[in-house]
Amino acid sequence: MNWAAKMVGGRFHYGWLVVAVVFLVLLAAAGTRATPSVMMIPLEHQFGWSRATISLAISVNIALYGLMGPFAAAAMQRFGVRPTLLVALATMAAGVAFSALMTHPWQMILIWGVMVGGATGVAALSLSATVVTRWFTTHRGLALGILTASSATGQLVFLPFLAAIAEKHGWQSVVLVVAVAAAVVLPLVAFLLPERPASMQLRPYGEPHDAPIAPPAPQQNPIKLAFGALTSASRTRDFWLLFFSFFICGASTNGYVGTHLIAMCGDYGMTEVQGASLLATMGIFDLFGTTLSGWLSDRFNARVLLFWYYGLRGLSLIYLPHAFGIDFFGLPIFAVFYGLDWIATVPPTVRLATDVYGKERAPIIFGWVVAGHQLGAAFAAFGAGLLRSSLGTYTVASMISGGLCLIASFLVLRINRGARTVGVQTA
Questions:
Q1: Can you give the residue ranges of every domain in the chain?
Q2: Which of these, 59, 17, 103, lies nearest to 254 by C-alpha position?
Q3: How confident is the chain (427 residues) per 10-residue block, as mean pLDDT?
Q4: Domain 11-188+220-414 carries which CATH code?
Q5: Is residue 269 packed enough to be buried (19+ CB in 10 Å), middle (13-18) or exposed (0-12)?
Q6: What is the DSSP string of 280-309?
């Protein structure tokens, strides 16, 4: 890959090209994760599956997406970022393509829940944390904000396009388009993603020119590495504060709004394309909000940022049921306000994890924190589906989600209060 380094040589650091490649990987993976929300109503009409049944498959997908995080981060240390990503992307593309043939709920649970959920869990937030800590010494928050924004933006911006395809050509056409998109990024990873700066005789961005090039970390068993990090980190209070606050983050974003907003809009007489367009609008604002959050995380107290993020998100979710009754301004106000805050919590959360547990261990420990995020998302995806099926409305689910965010806004103020680094062993 030295030819690529020469092409972008000079004052442009190769780390930014790495960010661009990973941005596209996360974009494809995020669009894949968002696809079941577009399929929910068509599957309900074609096969008669209930929303609770479809939500179960989505919740399995979300849970595995999160649980794969620490093992993916450990596998990247043991086998390398590129080989791990190539296997995951190939599995994801194959699983999505096979789902066009499904006719029974257990097939959706197996393919979309287990196969696709596990594969997308590799191309997730733990990938962003691994890449950023390896390639950047300065501007980590900005780089992480860009990558985080791609994850949420891809999940939302492609929805109107996918919903339009589902409306005109059926859900099978949707999954084939998504499978092709996942396959397209494979050659980019194969040819443009080196393992680390030292692989190209470079130093991380912002590293002094006279600093020695760091050797690769010793290879260890990825399962032992992941569970070793969990065992040590779980003995600290900060880990559980990070874990449960991110549990609420997942419950209030991917799990509830990301999964059910299109169906919720349908309850108020809106079409799938209109609901998906609302999510896409939120995704566009998230691109700015999360990138700005990364910039702010380089400069301000991460706990205070998280306090405001969770608090404002909670208020917006409590407002959501009332937004449908306000002509013109109701939903647009929610889309802008909530979109800016959609996943802005990630950069300050990664910064706190790095401050507490150190640069080398933080990606794996953050992987376990992401597992909490996705368990919360799975809980909300299935729970909101049950509440909708039993009550005929999403109002109670919105209030619960908003209340949890207000609780999280105070939990985060307790993280890393002593501003000390905790020595966590990973082996």
A1: 11-188+220-414
A2: 59
A3: 51 84 87 81 83 79 79 83 91 89 87 88 81 83 80 67 82 88 89 83 76 59 79 90 93 84 83 78 80 85 92 91 76 83 84 83 82 84 85 89 93 77 42
A4: 1.20.1250.20
A5: exposed
A6: HHHHHHHHHHHHHHHHHHTTS-HHHHHHHH
